[in-house]
Amino acid sequence: MKSNTYIQKITGLAIVTFIVMNFNSCEYFVRSDKAETIRTAESNEAISIQKNEAKLLVMASKNNLDVIKLCTIIEDEKVDENVKNLVEEIKNEQLTILAKYNELASENVISIPRYSTLKYEEIMTLKDSEGLEDHLKLLSTKIYNQQNFLDKLSDTTDNSEFKEMAQFANNTLKKSLNKTEKTLEILNTNS
């Protein structure tokens, strides 16, 4: 009989131990699932932010390359020397910005375009147009677009390198826009 009560006590103890272990094990898995869900959500958010940063940088660089191409087209036209000088300054500023884009893209493993996305038809329309007003309006639009993409990038990112680059580029772009307006004024006064 002693062995019978002894077996019952051991069996009861084993059952209680088993229940407690299962309860703790389930609680561990529930906590683990919650932690995993939180980690996954944070990871997905970080990936989404990085994709958005990359997209905005790519869009800004496309407009940058278009501005450089437009400057080259304008430089090839027969225009006033003052206009050529202003356009050359804008082109050099855009090349400096492009170098910053390339550096930042390389550091953050982002692939940005290397060539202008201006369509052949756009280029031919510009070459066929009288004067430079259409050229300069498109140039202003591309600079303005670039500035908007950088503003969005600066507003959405927590990355200090992106913010610094956006600030530098936006300051330079403001100067470029002013030069474009000044060039338009020169053309309008000479007409």
Please supply descriptive tags for the structure shown above.
Ferritin; DUF4142 domain-containing protein
Describe what you observe in this structure.
α1 runs antiparallel to α2 and α2 runs antiparallel to α5. The chain starts with a helix and ends with a helix. The radius of gyration is 31 Å and the shape is rod-shaped. It has a single domain, classed as Ferritin. The mean pLDDT is 81. The chain is mainly alpha-helical and 191 residues long. 87% of the residues lie in helices and 0% in strands. This is DUF4142 domain-containing protein. It comes from Kordia antarctica.
Total beta strands: 0
Q: What is the CA–CA distance across the termini?
A: 120 Å
Domain tally: 1
Mean pLDDT value: 81
Characterize the overall form. Answer: rod-shaped
Radius of gyration: 31 Å
Percentage beta strand: under 5%
Order of secondary-structure elements? HHHHH
CATH architecture: Up-down Bundle
Oligomer: single chain
Low-confidence stretches: none
CATH class: Mainly Alpha
Organism: Kordia antarctica
Protein name: DUF4142 domain-containing protein
